[in-house]
Amino acid sequence: MPPRKRPAPPLEEPPPSSKPAPDTKPSEPTKSGPDSETPTISATVLAKLPNMEKQVYTLIFEAGSKGMWLLDVRKKLNISPNIATKVVRTLVTHHLLKEVSDVRHRSRKIFMATDFQPSDEITGGTWYHDGKLDTDAVSAVRRRCQAQVEKLGAATVQMIHNGILRDDPKAGYTIDKIRDIVRTMVLDKVLEEVKSTGEGEFAAVRSGTMCYRLAGAAQGGMMEGIPCGVCPRIDECSPDGVISPTTCVYYKKWLQMDF
């Protein structure tokens, strides 16, 4: 008789250490720590705070990097100005909250949990220092943006940004900051936003793409906008003819332009 096959051994169960105990709940994620991307409120801190301080601290903490105006704290918790001020000041003393300046509303008192850094919306971002606009820094980057546009004739924000970093790799400007500056230059009529035709001064910019060039007639000299070059009846125009520069309304308008 052929030898009998042995039955397959039973599957081994995982060691007890890898199985949760019957009455043990899965562990919750750590509430706070140096590796957390976004700060989370500490249960230990909350446990030590009296009820009103706990409510105020939780409310302001949840506002994150935008902080909260003291008046909003009062309204949301329905407490008097004296109580709100006293509680907030106590939390500041305990280094749980801090007062920050808001460049948009200098008269408002904004409070924020010390775990957060104020957002650019509050500080003004790169162009502000200690709550004040750094006019020298803004002027410097505006000159750089203008130099790039003058060099290229017409350029997108990306092209301006690339050109600045190519000339000065240590400049450190983000494309968003360059975009902000370019927008202010458009408002100040230093630059104008136009759609590329893909030809002439727009040769480096894909047709149909929004880009920027120097405002006014600076981008090609005063002869660039003369209407005669595109007039369909230019062959019939003469000083003494029915059609002439002296009777042409378009020519007169062009002569009146401030070059």
Record the SSE blueprint.
Elements: H1 43-48, H2 51-62, E1 68-69, H3 70-77, H4 81-93, E2 97-100, E3 110-113, H5 120-123, E4 128-129, E5 132-133, H6 135-152, H7 157-167, H8 175-187, E6 191-195, E7 210-214, H9 249-255
Antiparallel strand pairs: 1-3, 2-3, 4-5, 6-7
Helix pairs in contact: 2-4, 3-4, 6-7, 6-8, 7-8
List the uncertain runs. 9-36, 217-225
Largest sheet: 3 strands, antiparallel
The oligomeric status of these chains comes to single chain
- The gyration radius over C-alpha positions equals 34 Å
Q: List SSEs in N-to-C order.
A: HHEHHEEHEEHHHEEH
Q: Can you put this structure into words, describing what you see?
A:
This protein has 9 helices and 7 strands, in the order ααβααββαββαααββα. The protein is elongated, with a radius of gyration of 34 Å. The longest helix is centred in the middle third of the chain and has 18 residues, at 135-152. With 259 residues, the protein is an alpha+beta fold. The chain has a 3-stranded antiparallel β-sheet with strand order 1-3-2. Helix 3 (70-77) crosses helix 4 and helix 6 crosses helix 7 (157-167).
